[in-house]
Amino acid sequence: MSIKGTDQKLYVGKTESNIISFLGKKTTIVYSELDRIDFSYFRPGRGGGYLDFIDKTGGKKRFSFNHKANKKIHQTIELIKESRPELEITEYHAEDYKFYQCDWFIILTMFFCCMPLGLLLMWRYKKYTLPIRAMMTFLIIALWFPGAYYLSTLQATTPPASSLAQSEITDISPEELITNYEANEVKGDEIYSGKYFRLTGAIGDIGKDILENVYITFKRDEPFAITSVQCYFNDDAEIQKVMDLNSGDNITLVGYCEGKFGNVQIKDCIIEVSNVSVKANTKKSGKDTEGFSTTLTAGHYVVGIDIPIGTYSFFSKKGTGNLYSNNGAINEIFDYENQAGESLKEYGVENFGTEELKNIYLSEGVVVTVTGTQEISAGCDDGLVSSMTNRNQDELEELEIGYGNYGANDNIPSGTYNIIWLEGSGNIISDSANTDNSINEIMGNPDKLDTGNEFDATLNKITDELYIQEFHNFTIEEGDILKIPDIKVRLVPSK
């Protein structure tokens, strides 16, 4: 007798049973080696029934199932009783569940109270199918990140810079400030956090964060540096001054340091001196600019290499995932036709994700990242296409790797690669000090999974929203590790 579970299949015999996992792994349960069996039939509101096989060492193997399997589970219990009448078999009921095991509590905790605890309970008690648990984990983290970001940018009560004496303001270059923070963030906070500074340098980027706060960043001495000094403006008069500035202009401003969150954050800024560059403003004049459009899928895209400098609009074409940039100008969940959002409505989540984002200016060196199955149309009318450069990776060759951990230069030459799925299904994860280079995705091909009659149409739809087959421009550097336990991939050097 075979029984279809939520993410497994159970084959029942007279003396033993076999559990086949989602990925095809076989676990044999020999009745004579069991100490007891705990089980509960499916009941609405609990997320499914279960059958726990517990051996004499205390080890437990769980088989989870839905309401369609209740009758066959009853037959299984009776068959095992015939084989081992002395075996302890205990049925648990809805009233036996603690409040923290109930669906309503887990959903409430994940969305409104304590996201980590809710996720822990969902995985601990195996609520819902494996793909649904993975999808919910991705979506919940994506929902909570903007809130965490907001909390990190809340300003302490400080006096305005205009009321300070000159002796309370320290002159420092943006490069010195960011370099010292990158060398030792703990020491940087001790020296700089909560104090006022005067900074002078060339503007790198001008924009708004996800909360519509106006900021500028300073250009780094390194052309493709990841982090910078990010300066925020609250006063309307100062924001008006920012509107007259352009990337490349020299500026002197005063503000207080709030520490490092990605970039070094300077708040409540006041512009003292601005020297608008005499060069033609190509962004406004259109000189040497042209229209550009492309489709972005999962990967990292460096402005000036993969896409040109310009003012972009983004539109969702397919799938679900995040779109964000390392300078804070973009941080959005994209969800085509609210496909993922529909599954969350029953839990009270409305207006999940977006399908478009407009008028985002991206300067040279900014890294734009797309995650998940999202396909995003990206285009601009003022692209500096002629200024784009190539990666110098002529010495790199294609590699096929899988089922293991790989270190930069030990197993994989340092560089930037497109990752192409070949076989298997599972996570691909990197350990990297630079989060702009990292990857944490599920790779596979739902069309090639040997599901048979194992999964219904809903499950197939969910897996289609989870699995990707390519990831673009993954960079691995000295000290980084790429982990691929369950799949095989090809690494193709990016140009």
Explain this structure to me?
- By secondary structure, the chain is of the alpha+beta class.
- It folds into five domains: 2-96, PH-domain like, CATH 2.30.29.30; 110-153; 161-275, Nucleic acid-binding proteins (OB fold (Dihydrolipoamide Acetyltransferase, E2P)); 282-387, Jelly Rolls (Sandwich); 399-493.
- Helix content is 21%, strand content 39%.
- Strands 23, 24, 25, 26, 27 and 28 form a six-stranded antiparallel sheet that branches. It has a five-stranded mixed beta barrel with strand order 10-11-12-14-13. The protein has a four-stranded antiparallel sheet with strand order 1-2-3-4, with helices on one face.
- Strand 6 (49-55) and strand 7 form a beta hairpin.
- Helix 4 (130-153) packs across helix 10 (457-466).
- The radius of gyration is 27 Å and the shape is elongated.
- 34% of the residues are buried.
Main sheet? 6 strands, antiparallel
CATH-derived architecture of the largest domain: Beta Barrel
Instruction: Tell me the count of domains.
Output: 5
Residue-averaged pLDDT:
79
Shape: elongated
User: What is the highest CATH level, the class of the largest domain?
Assistant: Mainly Beta
Strand segment count: 28
Beginning-to-end CA distance, first to last residue: 55 Å
Structural class: alpha+beta
Low-confidence stretches: 150-157, 276-287
Strand percentage: 35-45%
CATH fold title of the largest domain = OB fold (Dihydrolipoamide Acetyltransferase, E2P)
Helix content: 10-25%
Q: How many alpha or pi helices?
A: 10
Relevant CATH superfamily of the largest domain? Nucleic acid-binding proteins
* Cα gyration radius (Å): 27 Å
